[in-house]
Amino acid sequence: MSARIDTRKVQGLSATEIYISAEPANSVTSQGQIEGLFAEIGDILNKENANILQEWIYTVDGVVDKVSAARREAYGKKDDGVAPSLLVGRQGRHGSIAGVQVHAVAGSNKPEPIMLDGEKCGRVLKSAGLTYLTLSGIAGGKSGGHVKQAREMLEKGESALKQFGGDFTCVPRTWMWLGDILSWYGEFNAVRNQFFTERGLIGKGSRQSMPASTGIGLGLGGSKQFGMDITAVLEPKSSIEFLGAIGRQQCALDYGSAFSRASQANSPAGKTMFVSGTASIDAKGTTAHIGDAKGQIETTIENVRAALRDMNCGDGDVVQTVVYCRTTEVEDIFEKFKGRLDWPWVTVICDICRDGLLFEIEAAAMPQTQR
User: Is residue 370 part of a domain?
Assistant: First the structure.
């Protein structure tokens, strides 16, 4: 077996959601190892008769094309032409590919690809009164600098949502892939704040309809400098709840970042709880345990667990997690914590949104997880 694969399944009345988290068993140094990893994921999709809703591949610069080719070959007909989010970070203990995560669905209508600017950019699933939409790798233009491109990225995401009668108020979860995050995160926040204010998500008279979100220092593979992923629930829109402050943390908007600490919404097999990218930040919005990786890891995990408890979720309900470590040294320290929680870990090396932060976790949970 070339990978450690964790599969979590939640069965609903009309569909089963399947979350696959795969980490290489050893350091990946060959194309054969990459092919073997995707072959095992493809076997699970075929066995479950499942179709992909969303997919994330965590890799390093220089092997994106090889990874894409291995994936296409292994998946066969399960590859519907929608590219996964190929996310480029720094090399860690697993070598050229840190891990793969797939969110799939079985026993329901087949997700249909979404077209934007002549390319397949996501999927829409319509089933039993639910319209569920995902977008991957949405990016702005290639000119005009980061600020202009970030605005274009948000507008393109909005344009895709409008194809199905939606907008950003239908979005419980976003991911902002910002490769050089430390150099311009403040500027990005200003762009997002202005866009959300104009759209009525935040500001006077709004419902504070900010998605749960991750903003992290991973780049998109290929020619895109940065981009965005989206999960949206167009129907029933009333199922979405935005939780600006939750657990042990205040609302991030208090210090200028327009995202909710968590959100929840209907999904094909029931209801999903999304915990935003969470770090060692205290109730006042201050970085805690500066320079202390162990302290930041412990605090971050407890911040995530507190948010889950507030949404009536336990550790056994977690279906997906990503761990972001600033350095390989932090990753090595985290390895000692992995066995404490039966969560589906995938660990990535990249910059976090503040200079003093060494560690971050995001999570998704669904009650009554079946293994």
Answer: no
